[in-house]
Amino acid sequence: MSLLGIDIGSTGCKAVAFSLSGRCLAQAYREYNMLHPQPGWAELDSKTVWQAAQEVIAQVALESAQDPITALSISSIGESVVPVTKNREILGTSIHCSDNRGSEYATQLQSKISQEQFFQINPNIIGVNYTMPKLRWICDHQSDIYQQADYFLSWADLTAFLLGGQPVASPSLACRSLLFDLRANQWSDKLISLSQLESVRSKLAPICPCGSVIGTVDKKLAERLNLPAEVAIVVGAHDQACNVLGAGILDDRQTVYGIGTFICITPTFTAVPELKTMLKAGLCIEPHLFSNQYLSFLYNQGGAIVKWFRDTFVATANSKNDDDAYERLAEEMPDEPTDIFVTPYFEPTGPPDYLTNTTGTILGLRTSTTRGEIFRAVMESATYYFADVLASNNYPIRPREFVATGGGAKSDAWLQIKADIFGIPFVRNEITECSALGAALLAGIGSGQLESNRSTIERFAVAQRRFEPQPERHQLYQERLGTYRKAVAAVRDYQEL
Fold first, then answer.
1. What is the model's pLDDT at position 316?
2. What is the pTM of this model?
3. By the 8 A CB rule, do 495 and 357 touch?
4. Are 324 and 362 in contact (CB under 8 A)?
C-alpha cells in the first residue's frame, strides 16, 4: 500500500507516492504559466491546472502500481478559488493572490470595521490579496459565472471535489478568504455581511476538518488515472500547513523556510498567539492541520523572481521545464558575496508592509557584471528581505534553526547563502517536497493507515544535510544588509514620486 500527496502551486503541480515506511516511490511534476491578460492581473487557467494535476497523478499511479495507492490528499496555494458547478464543471479562471483586482472592495471593508476588530474574528490583514475582494469583483464583473457557480473552492478542496469527493472547505484554506471565524472554526456571517457577499454564502462549501475522509476517487476517473478502486480522498490543507507537517516540525525548536514561488517562513504555535503583538507585526494567524495548533507566515515572492530571471535570461521556449537552466546559472555564480542589490518587489509583497504598487530594481550593474553575479544577487536580495524583517526588535519570531523545503531547497549554494546571511543553521531533509509529503501524511493519518505521533513523522522527515553559517561571511553580509536597507528605502521613495 502507498499514499499519494498532491501539491497544487502557483506555477506548477506535483504528485508524490510514499510507502507506509516513508520511502518515496514515484514523483511527477508539471509546470504551467501565470496568465497576465491585463496589467496588474494574474490568473491561472483552471482547466490547464486540472489537466496538469491529472497528468501527474496518472504518471505516479502507474509508476507505483506494484505498491498500490490507497489514499490521497492535496495541499495547495491559498486565496485563489475556482468557480465550479455541482456537476464538477469548471466555469472560469482562478484569480491569483498577486492580482490587484478588487482593491476597492478591501477598502470598503476597512471603512466598515477596524483592523483591530476584524483581527479578533479573522486574524489577517485586510487586503486585495485575499479571496473576498476577488469574489466581489467576480460578482460585479463576471455576473454570469458568479450566478452559474454552485461553489467557489480553493485549489486543494477543488481537486478533491473533481476527483469524486464531497464539496468541503478546509479550515486553513477558508481562513485565507477573510470570511472565516478562527475561534468558531466556521464561516463568519458577520464578515460575509460586511463584505456584501450574502449571495455567496450558499456557494461556500461546509467547513470540514483536515484529515477527514470525504469519499473515494470516482471509478471511471480512477481507471483513467491508473488508480486502484476505492482510493480514499482525505481533506487537505493550505500548502504551508502541509509543508510544516512534511518537514517534521513538531515544536518551536525549528521553523520551516519554504522556497517555492513564494518564499515563506512558517512558525508554529500551540495556542492562539497574542493578537495585539501579531497585528503590530503584520502577521496573520491560521489554523494548523490539527486542533489547538496554529501557524503564521512571513512571505514574499522571492522564488518567482528567481524563476523570472531563469526564464528571461537563460531558458529557451523549449527548456523552461528543465533544471539545466538553473544548473548553468549556478555554475556561473561567483563564490563571494556581490555588491549588487535587487529590490524584491516585482509583485505585491506580503507582511509586514503589504505593498501593492511596486516594481523591482537591480542596482549596482556595470558593463563587467556577469549573468552569474546577477543571479547570485537575486538569491541574496530575496534573503535580505526576510533577514531585514526578522532583525526588527518588534518582530515576535526568533527562529533558531530553519528546515528548508520546496524546489529551492535543492540548491546547496542558496542554502549556504541563507545560512550566512541569517547567521543560523539551515537543514535540508532527504525529501524537500514537503507540501506533497505533508499531504501524503494527512492521507495516511486520515485513512487510519498511519498513527499521528512523533515516530511516524520522523520516519518520513529525515535530515540529509546541515548548512552552518560561516562567521566571517555572516559579518560581511550584515554590512551588505545595511546597504540593502538604504537601497530599498531609496527605491520606495522614488516610486512614491
1. 56
2. 0.87
3. yes
4. no
Q: Among 32-41, 298-307, 322-331, where is mean pLDDT lowest?
A: 322-331
Quote the domain boundaries for residue 184: 2-238
pLDDT value for 495: 62
Asked if 297 and 240 count as a contact pair (C-beta separation under 8 A), the reply is yes
User: What band does 322 get if pLDDT is binned at 50, 70 and 90?
Assistant: low
209 grid coordinates: 476538518
- Provide the Cα torsion 465, 466, 471, 473; round to 10°: 40
State the cell numbers at 52: 496538469
3-state secondary structure of 298: strand
Cα distance from N-terminal residue to C-terminal residue, the chain: 61
Q: Are strands 268-269 and 294-295 parallel, antiparallel or unpaired?
A: antiparallel
Specify whether 172 is located in the same domain as 306. Answer: no
Same domain, 232 and 264: no
Residue 475 reports pLDDT greater than 60: yes
The DSSP line for 100-154 is -TTHHHHHHHHHHS-HHHHHHHS-S---TTSHHHHHHHHHHH-HHHHHH-SEEEE
DSSP β-ladder status, 69-76 and 2-8: parallel
pLDDT tens string 246-305: 999 987 788 999 998 889 999 999 889 899 999 988 899 999 998 789 999 898 888 888
Domain of residue 304, CATH code: 3.30.420.40
